[in-house]
Amino acid sequence: MRAPVPVRVEDRHRFDTLIDARSPAEYAIDHIPGAINCPVLDDEERRIVGTLYKQQGAFEARRVGGAMVAANLARHLEERFADRPAGWKPLVYCWRGGLRSGSMVTWLRLVGWDAQQLAGGYKSWRRHVIDRLEALCPRLDLRVLCGATGSAKTRVLQAMAAQGQQVLDLEGFAAHKGSLLGARPGTPQPSQTAFETRIAALLEGIDTARPLYIEGESRRIGRLDLPTALVTRMRESPCIEVVATPQARLAYLLRDYAYLGDDPEALSRQLGLLKELHGKAVIGRWQQWAAAGELPSLFAELTALHYDPAYRRSQASHFARWSERRPVPADDLSDAGIEALARRVTELG
């Protein structure tokens, strides 16, 4: 078996399994795609060791932490790694590529597996993500799909992906629809770092000789910021505009946002954030409709008085080639209509 050699991020695919040895909380914030979490210290143990280090010094922290690490590694050997063959090749990382991943690599190699350690740990992955975004975004042949709220842009992109086109679904990665009412019930947004990891991982597999379709977004989706290099490339790329009829848009919004009627109080609170823009009388009317479940009336006025004017103001300032945009009319945003619309958008690309 070869001697352990620190492995670069670029070489991670040469291994059978990628193991994140950090705590579950660290793993939940962000991790290398495909990594499994086998912590050498869980969240509480990590807190205890950190407190000991501050209060009693490195020796006591290592003495107590070492016992915890040994117990956790023994459990992983008995459970998670029990069925691994003799030729198994895992790559292990922790925060900086230090003691936690080093301890696991030592134990795995004692068993006889060709375990290796990721040089620099998760921090090297984070640098890799930032570097790849900066390098790849300027090379993307983007097609920016625009359209007023309710034009089913995200669903069109998903249909295009199913039809074999290259698509970057930013709202899917962000777990947010990008508007005031865009939060998804029961689905929290990922961390900023996890959001960027998802984008970078997809871009690494993109064929830059083919178009990549993306929805026209502002710099922020919910509480997440788009990578600056991606925003810059988006702003200078050609646009395709879905021009849907008001009737089709309203019908689509009533289907896509139907869940808002399940929590009238939360909907009313969100609408209250628009009071400075539209005044007490308008917001009061919208909140009454929300309380009564009158979503058709509410969505019709929201689009006419709030979303549409904001859309018209923003597009020319956001997209350098807005005057060259290619329109795609749409009067049917049913599932079948979206499939057909996706094919027409592809034909323009």
Any overview of this molecule?
The chain has 14 helices and eleven strands. With 349 residues, it is an alpha/beta fold. The strands form three sheets. The protein has a five-stranded parallel sheet, with helices on both faces. Strand 3, helix 4 (99-111) and strand 4 form a beta-alpha-beta unit. The termini are far apart. 33% of the residues are buried. The model has no long low-confidence stretch (mean pLDDT 95).
Short note summarizing the structure:
This protein has 349 residues and is an alpha/beta fold. Helices cover 52% and strands 11% of the residues.
- The helix/strand class is alpha/beta
Ends distance: 52 Å
**Total beta-strand segments:** 11
Cα radius of gyration in angstroms: 25 Å
Q: How much strand?
A: 5-15%
Task: List the strand order in the largest sheet.
Answer: 6-7-5-10-11
Highlighted features:
alpha/beta, 349 residues, 11% strand, elongated
